[in-house]
């Protein structure tokens, strides 16, 4: 592998064909609005073997962990849209909420005592969940790409 | 009119709540990121995801990029990483990877404003490399390339690899001289 990809990219770029589409540039600029100041980023973590199964029904499990907080997300892709059922462990307590975010749509859910939440009908693409707790810095999962 | 800011300044300003700095980063590096994603063989939808993914990774690391002056190379490398994950579909949902901290040296080809230099170097290559790389840059398929060069289609891939290797050597030499 001699990093041909970079040279091919550079050649195509220099040739001026296949320019970046306007909507891709616009999406990149809009992404700046998605930053969460002071947020701690939760990294992907191993799931128990029993849970790490991609079901035939298009259901995925993924786990993120940071600073004592675990996000377990069960993501279902169906009809071209994404449904997320999740749980924040340990439950962060009263006054907490999560933002289930895509670049185009954010759904906010107040967290009950169980720490469970659900959001449906999200557009496919990049997804992240941010947990806001009173008196703590927000914790955001890394962005994960979900497509049918 | 204000002097254009360098990548380090832009990154620091973007980390400090300056949308215009972020926009400038996009103007400067977005086209290259797109070219990287497309060069990895992705269609438009997947390439758009790879580019968007790299920008989202930058958001996650706005304050922790080790070499702010090399943010362009970081973005190109990260785009390539996302593109590879997307093209290996089984891994797109298992984003357990360590982000590249050191930019790939080859990304410098995309990092520098080197289009003119690159074309000059391509023009200096002997045939069939000169024509072949010009055709490849224009996204001409292997069959057409074989026809234009009068060679068997099976030899186009290996020849392309050899020509890119020559190009890389020449570019490296020029960078050493500079």
Could you please describe the fold and organization of this structure?
The complex is a heterodimer of chains A (148) and B (178). Chain A is 14% helix and 43% strand. The longest helix of chain A has 12 residues. Chain A has a single domain, classed as Immunoglobulins (Immunoglobulin-like), CATH 2.60.40.10. With 148 residues, chain A is mainly beta. Chain B folds into 2 domains: 105 residues, Rna Polymerase Sigma Factor, Chain: A; 63 residues, Orthogonal Bundle (Arc Repressor Mutant, subunit A), CATH 1.10.10. In chain B, α2 crosses α4 and α3 packs across α4. The two termini of chain B are 30 Å apart. Chain B has 178 residues and is mainly alpha-helical. The interface between A and B is large, with 45 and 62 residues. Chain B: Keywords: DNA-binding, Sigma factor, Transcription, Transcription regulation. Chain B: Belongs to the sigma-70 factor family. ECF subfamily. Chain B: InterPro entries: RNA_pol_sigma-70-like, RNA_pol_sigma-70_dom, RNA_pol_sigma70_r2, RNA_pol_sigma_r2, RNA_pol_sigma_r3/r4-like, WH-like_DNA-bd_sf.
The number of strands of chain A is: 10
How many strands appear in the DSSP assignment of chain B?
A: 0
- The oligomeric state of the chains shown is heterodimer
Helix content of chain A: 10-25%
Strand content of chain B: under 5%
Terminus-to-terminus distance of chain A? 30 Å
What's the gyration radius of chain A in Å?
Answer: 18 Å
Largest sheet of chain B: none
Largest protein interface? A-B, 45 and 62 residues
The helix fraction of chain B, in percent, is: 55-70%
Shape of chain A: elongated
Q: How many H/I helices of chain B?
A: 9
CATH class label of chain A: Mainly Beta
By DSSP (H or I, 4+ residues per run), the number of helices of chain A equals 2
User: How does the overall form of chain B come out from the CA principal axes?
Assistant: globular
Chain-averaged pLDDT of chain A: 88
CA(first)-CA(last) distance of chain B = 30 Å
Q: Which structural class matches the secondary elements of chain B? A: mainly alpha
Could you please say which CATH topology of chain A applies here? Immunoglobulin-like
CATH architecture of chain A: Sandwich
Keywords (chain B): DNA-binding, Sigma factor, Transcription, Transcription regulation
Family (chain B): Belongs to the sigma-70 factor family. ECF subfamily.
Organism (chain B): Nonomuraea indica
Protein name (chain B): RNA polymerase sigma factor
């Amino acid at each position: 592998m001699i990093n041909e990809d970079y040279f091919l990219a550079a050649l195509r770029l220099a040739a001026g064909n296949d320019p970046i589409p306007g909507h891709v540039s616009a999406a990149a600029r809009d992404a700046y609005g998605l930053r969460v100041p002071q947020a701690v980023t939760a990294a992907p973590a191993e799931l128990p073997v029993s849970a790490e199964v991609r079901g035939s029904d298009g259901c995925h499990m993924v786990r993120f962990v940071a600073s004592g907080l675990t996000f377990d997300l069960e993501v279902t892709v169906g009809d071209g849209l994404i449904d997320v059922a999740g749980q924040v462990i340990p439950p962060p307590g009263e006054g907490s909420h999560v933002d289930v975010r895509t670049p185009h749509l954010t759904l906010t859910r107040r967290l009950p005592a169980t720490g469970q939440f659900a959001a449906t009908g999200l557009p496919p693409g990049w997804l992240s969940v941010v947990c806001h707790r009173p008196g703590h810095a927000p914790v955001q999962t890394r962005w994960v790409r979900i497509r049918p | 009119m204000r002097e254009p800011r360098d990548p380090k300044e832009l990154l620091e300003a973007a980390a400090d709540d300056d949308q215009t700095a972020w926009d400038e980063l996009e103007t400067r590096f977005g086209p290259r990121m797109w070219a990287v994603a497309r060069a990895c063989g992705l269609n438009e939808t997947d390439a758009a995801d790879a580019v968007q993914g790299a920008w989202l990774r930058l958001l996650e690391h706005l304050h922790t990029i080790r070499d702010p002056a090399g943010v362009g190379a970081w973005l190109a490398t990260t785009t390539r990483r996302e593109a590879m994950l997307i093209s290996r579909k089984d891994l797109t949902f298992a984003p357990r990877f360590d982000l590249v901290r050191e930019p790939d040296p080859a990304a410098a080809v995309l990092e520098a404003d080197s289009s003119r230099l690159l074309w000059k170097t391509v023009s200096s290559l002997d045939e069939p490399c000169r024509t072949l790389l010009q055709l490849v840059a224009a996204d001409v398929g292997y069959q057409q390339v074989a026809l234009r060069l009068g060679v068997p289609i099976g030899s186009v891939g290996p020849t392309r690899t050899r020509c890119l290797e020559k190009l890389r050597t020449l570019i490296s030499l020029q960078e050493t001289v500079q």
